[in-house]
């Protein structure tokens, strides 16, 4: 049988070789049952009990994960408890039962459906993936009402690779490390809670593997490469031998790489690059430090706004930022101000629906449109800066006017705090994200207004190439190595350094080992990535000289297509790091959606 190679998104590193167990997960569905009005009180009582049972189950899962893996991972289920405890869920469901005289499970299903659809329409990958949390909680409630119990029965413990369309965070949390070798799913992304759970359990995982369930059968031999994002079905003897050797080598290298955590990312000839972490929520701070992060290069603040009917208060912002500043000091943390639009926020925003929200009133535009909301976040960051080194970063900057307007508000807030005698870091650094082509083109002008740049390659590539990276019809055109993208990166770095400011990259490119040599050659001062990527990137940087990296960059700029760039880059990286950079097999592919 010919081997089939599928490409997805590697979200938890490692190689697994085992037998497939295909999970045909069927989400619980409720049929509409019209009730006699006299049965409505009893139906509301059924709903109340199901909500109580669901809360107890989530709390039990949270406690088990906290004790077995770590408290920071148990806090992943805080989001589930927030959804469950949202008074609107219970109140709206009760109202639906009373108004329609229907069964509780159908009412829950109907009340949650608009919420699920709203998350599905979100452009931002991190926020869109929070729909899985809504699904997980909703499915638990429905199963409790229907008397169903989800089970994943594993007969071959220690030999199984799970293949599924999707796994909820609860599904992943229920897995035992000694029971399964790896996980492959059709859906999901790097920031999904299931991906975070897989990393915490140290289970190799690949997500976003299109149509994998249709091409694999139970007991098929499967190779899963969580570093390269590959799933190989029914491999031949030669491929199996190669991956058995690769697995042994990676296990050895993993032990070796762990020792690099405390070492600096410095080239052989003394060029220093800071390697920092991107995190989504406070639970990941411990992982960032454990992997050797020299700071937090991107701290997303959006989680504060999710799963609630109102806006977070200044005190809520302050408590989170202070905890992060104290936990990470003396290492700096860059807090990115609110980076999504009104259609993705708490219902208290009340903004009009937009045809194309990704290009609409979002990020810095929304913050300037709602200055009081923005001022509260700025005040909280400034107040927290008295407890550890924080930096402020404005997202989606398109021109100088936006930076000046944001800085004007910042100066007003600073003056208010000074007058009130509230301490803060008066020299706090302020930066701009370069993720819109207009910002890259005028980077020389923007560099005069801020203390640093951080390049968000995910959106910069999407906007520069006019590619919807979550549209499967054109996702193959999402090309980080497109010559136009490389030229923009070179322009941004040169503009920053000419004005004496430093420049970071916080997009997915920064943590991909394939791009390590190129990014050093371009002159980036800092690379920020998912924590698990840090040791390998440090290893690459510490094994080269800056002159070698600069020479490679010069040669890459002579290429005319992304394919030519990748061929030359992969060839160079494989010659230097054959243990980390594979010659990616051709096969079914799907671009990253993060």
Describe it for me?
With 594 residues, the protein is an alpha/beta fold. It folds into three domains: 4-26 and 153-245, Glucose Oxidase, domain 1; 37-146, Enzyme I, Chain A, domain 2; 264-576, Alpha-Beta Barrel (TIM Barrel). The protein is 45% helix and 13% strand. It has helices spanning 40-68, 71-74, 78-85, 87-100, 104-120, 125-128, 131-146, 169-174, 193-200, 212-215, 237-258, 285-290, 314-328, 363-369, 371-384, 400-419, 437-441, 443-446, 457-465, 483-498, 516-522, 534-541, 546-556, 562-576; strands at 4-7, 9-12, 15-23, 160-164, 180-185, 205-207, 221-225, 230-233, 274-279, 296-300, 333-336, 390-394, 430-434, 452-455, 502-505, 526-529. Strands 1-8-7-3-4-5-6-2 form an eight-stranded mixed β-sheet. Strands 9-10-11-12-13-14-15-16 form an eight-stranded parallel beta barrel, surrounded by five helices. Helix 1 (40-68) runs antiparallel to helix 3, helix 3 crosses helix 7 and helix 14 crosses helix 15 (371-384). The two termini are 34 Å apart. The model is unreliable at 584-594 (pLDDT under 50).
Summarize the structure.
Helices cover 45% and strands 13% of the residues.
The main pleated sheet reads as: 8 strands, mixed
Question: What is the C-alpha radius of gyration, as a whole number of Å?
Answer: 24 Å
Instruction: Please identify the structural class as seen in this structure.
Output: alpha/beta
Q: State mean pLDDT (0 to 100 scale).
A: 86
Overall body shape:
globular
CATH class of the largest domain: Alpha Beta
Distance between the termini: 34 Å
Annotation field: number of helices: 24
How many strands in all? 16
In terms of quaternary structure, the protein is single chain
* Fraction of helical residues: 40-55%
Mind telling me which CATH architecture of the largest domain this is? Alpha-Beta Barrel
In CATH, the topology of the largest domain is named TIM Barrel
Low-confidence stretches: 584-594
Total number of distinct structural domains = 3
